[in-house]
Amino acid sequence: MESVKSIETATTALATHPTGKLDISREKSAALYEKAKTYFPGGVNSPVRAFRSVYGTPLFIVKGDGCHIWDADGNKFIDFCCSWGPLILGHNNTQIREKVTETMQNGMSFGAPTALENELAELILSHNKYIEKLRFVSSGTEAVMSAIRLARGYTKRDKILKFEGCYHGHVDSLLVKAGSGLVTFGETSSAGVPKSFADETIVVPLNDLKAVKLAFEEFKDQIAAVIIEPVPANNGLLLQEKEFLQQLREICTVKEALLIFDEVISGFRLGFEGAAGYYQIQPDIITYGKIIGGGLPVGAYGSSAEIMSNISPEGAVYQAGTLSGNPVAMSAGIAQLSELAKPGFYIGLNQKTKKFTDEIEQYSEEKNYGMKVFRIGSIFWFAFTGLENIRRADEIDPKSMEKFKLFHRKLLNRGVYIGPSGYEVGFISSAHTENDLEKAKKAIFESLDFVFHQQTDASFTG
């Protein structure tokens, strides 16, 4: 990399600058973004990357190693985005890299079975009592799409019940009051989704059993499945009580509808068995995302052997994909999940996260700042709120995003990278060392001080 300069230079200057106006250089990233806008809608290939809800232009990343990333201008950051969660072992993990390199010597795609699919499936199923069979796909969105089709095919019903603020990928019928980038841009649905598709989706608020029961009464014998992120983490971290999830399980059983846990984020994050294991609740279908491929494009959905027997070629529910079970992604998954399956892995990771987030929240409380840190496992969310709990999308104050916007900018200037939206969560990996977390905490404390003591600055033009 040409003339790699540490972010620490900018950090030192900031410490002596009374108003903290100095920003890191984004000259090369800005130039790349201008060129990208001539190729891609909005200059990006996924909406939140556009930095529309924070200051400045997107950072173009050129390298990642451990818990650090470097941008095109040579700035170095402690990364809490972790490619939106799947890099639980950090960037450029040695075991994953070596396993992938070994596999690539023999080819990268065959559109035919390989033994690597068997190996990864056995590793997952032997450590997860909540599914008996699975099917690999190429993304979390594809996993959810396939799970919905399976639920409809199995129950012979059409309607799906989802929860406001839960995001399940860009599946047409589920882009209704969803989270993630849609919330970032203040939208509740997507153009291009036919009304007839949306009409098959029933949307109710989170943490509202009465609304769920009313939906089943109104659409008697029409609901194929209830789908929920058991840990809603695409619209803030809207932690649900176990009792609510357990009640959903019981309602679905009585009404003969399937319960789908969308664990694209929580799967293999809270523990090897994900949220199903964390809450000890048996869903009917579970969907997983790119964490099972070490960050490579992959997903999966799993269920009982009986329900999965409905999938083609064994059953009548069709689903296929040339890159499903891609050998490179399978090898990365084997390397990553082998590490995750080791005794004590999650205990150490979750304890490290708890200590980190507890100390940030304690600092905020001592300073009487209106900021809380919500956490589960190694997932956390900075929320500019005075509420003790936020369980529903409508409990998030949109005005709080102005504080996040300034907070995000201050963190970048101090060498800390978090997702460019106040609705997105953060992640800690096993690669984050005690020293890294201490540096990050210091940057977070300084940024909070700035946000709450100087919330406006005329020189910030974004």
Description:
With 462 residues, the protein is an alpha/beta fold. The chain folds into two domains: 8-79 and 344-453, Aspartate Aminotransferase, domain 1 (Alpha-Beta Complex), CATH 3.90.1150; 94-340, 3-Layer(aba) Sandwich (Aspartate Aminotransferase, domain 2), CATH 3.40.640. The chain has 15 helices and 14 strands. It has helices at 8-16, 27-36, 94-104, 115-125, 140-155, 181-184, 195-198, 209-218, 242-255, 274-279, 305-308, 327-340, 345-366, 400-413, 434-453, and strands spanning 61-65, 68-71, 76-79, 133-137, 159-163, 201-204, 223-228, 258-262, 285-288, 299-303, 372-376, 379-383, 416-417, 426-427. The longest helix is centred in the C-terminal third of the chain and has 22 residues, at 345-366. The chain starts with 7 loop residues before the first helix and ends in a 9-residue tail after the last helix. Residues 1-20, 178-188 and 456-462 have low confidence and may be disordered.
